[in-house]
Design goal:
Four Helix Bundle (Hemerythrin (Met), subunit A); Ribose 1,5-bisphosphate isomerase; 3-stranded antiparallel beta sheet; IF_2B-like_C; 7-stranded mixed beta sheet; 2 domains; S-methyl-5-thioribose-1-phosphate isomerase activity; single chain; alpha/beta; 325 residues; Rossmann fold
Amino acid sequence: MENRQPDVDPAVVATADDIAAMRTRGAATIADAAAKALATQAERAETTQPAAFERQLRAAAETLYETRPTAVSLPNALRYVLRGMDGETVTELRATTIARAEEFRAELAQAQQRLGEVGSNRLRDGDVVMTHCHSTDALSCLEAALEDGKEIEAIVKETRPRKQGHITAQQLREWGVPVTLIVDNAARRYLDEADHVLVGADSIAADGSVINKIGTSGLAVNARERGVPVMVAAQTLKLHPDTMTGHTVEIEMRDETEVLADDQRADITGERDDDGLIVENPAFDVTPPRHVDAIVTERGQFPPESIVTLMRELFGETTGEPWEP
């Protein structure tokens, strides 16, 4: 990632690079990394001028924000930290910013634990859960169920093109959960063996639409047809105050190299220099609320149509405020 902000600390740029390249992944993990990066920027800023300090913090926030446009946890984290920046001197601004970032990170860790406890209540001893992609919120529900003494099995979709499902499978295996790893196209076949579909979310719109890793929507449609309940695990950090429907959320389009290597492109086109092949690689899709049974948060579980009430409680009656660093 090219750094166009000369006042941004190199550690912040490195964090942004990791987020953009998906070395740092998962909405909660991204939010935590962003808050930590802003604290680092505040700690290392060398200016003695309050206006320059604020300018550098907002430049750092902009650098981080530009990495992943769909995951609303990122701008929500940045908003939270920046709104806590207060004071008339650099010393005061620095202290309040760092304290706010630490507060956010502590709340984030506690929220995921509470969410897991809520989600665990929906799982019964002996349940088989089908997962998609890699979600720390979804995993927290399974971890809490295991801590409650429940026996759980998992069917894990590998989730191409980056195969984040392999990370989920590895974590579950470390916890002693029996795992069946399947290719994405086999999901319909194995839904008959599942008691729940459990996924995370990168954003949730006010109408209850769920924006998550590409393939979630198709899985939810098939699950609905099979009568398998779909549970979405998402901290309130994932609620998107800028949008009323999921279809207005910007969907990140990732590089074609995640889908095709150079030699594969040559095989398909017949010529390595042929630019006629179009490869599209959307990172997310939108699952309509009618295909979701429950959205589990640290504040409880909600039917999708009730999410707008929770959003108003958290963000006020006026939503739709665009991100501004």
